[in-house]
Amino acid sequence: MKFGFSVPTWGSFDERALGDLASEAEAAGWDGFFLWDHILWDPQGEGLADTTVGLATVALATERVRFGALVTPLPRRRPWKFARETMSLDRMSAGRLVVGVGLGADFEFEPLDEPTPARLRAELLEEGLEVVTRFWSGEPFTYAGRHFRVDDVGMMPATVQQPRPPVWVGFWWPNRAPARRAAQWDGIVPLNGSELGEPLSPEAVHDCLEYVRRHRTNESPLDVVVSPHGGDPKPYEDAGATWWIGSVSPEETIATARERIAMGPPR
User: pTM above the 0.90 mark?
Assistant: First the structure.
């Protein structure tokens, strides 16, 4: 099992601080460092850092850790712009980027007149991933979907990681359709859809993983990412989890994050 730490992007967690925290996490032995991705949710009312800019500071401040957003609501992004950003992040980090994606939440779509029905966002996510991953190849391609069109366009240079950076898909368990969609990619980030705010139990993680495996169409390795809010990682490892993510809650401070990061991963 690998261990990562995740931090928000509001208040004192600004772009400079995010790079500093990532460097501290690397020095303390963590395997990954991840950022939340919000544009409106600011529970402390002190302002939000831009996640992509924050990831750039993380890439430049570290040499070893995996990093990325957990997770980016891809349906609110133009896939070609997201492709260019992630290609740059992968290149500037020498191939350490993990791309976490999901549907996003209604409360960040509705006030900005973005698409809100879950089914529409699911279509945008599926098409967006198809377009983004094809751009990552560096080869020109043509694509005609319901929502996006690409006419013989390529982007260079290709990502360092080939055939692509790992794609982790977040979803609410036990929702079945999002789990089936996530099964086709490189990792799953299941969250508790029955008791919001509570982590999934090891038993729920096991059941989710069994369901995903039944709908997986390839035999490549699958990352299973859990955020249990502390505790013993062994039951989650036994359930099939490959990443254990530590974090701070919305009301906690950057000082608390630094203390937990300095403690190192619970190996």
Answer: yes
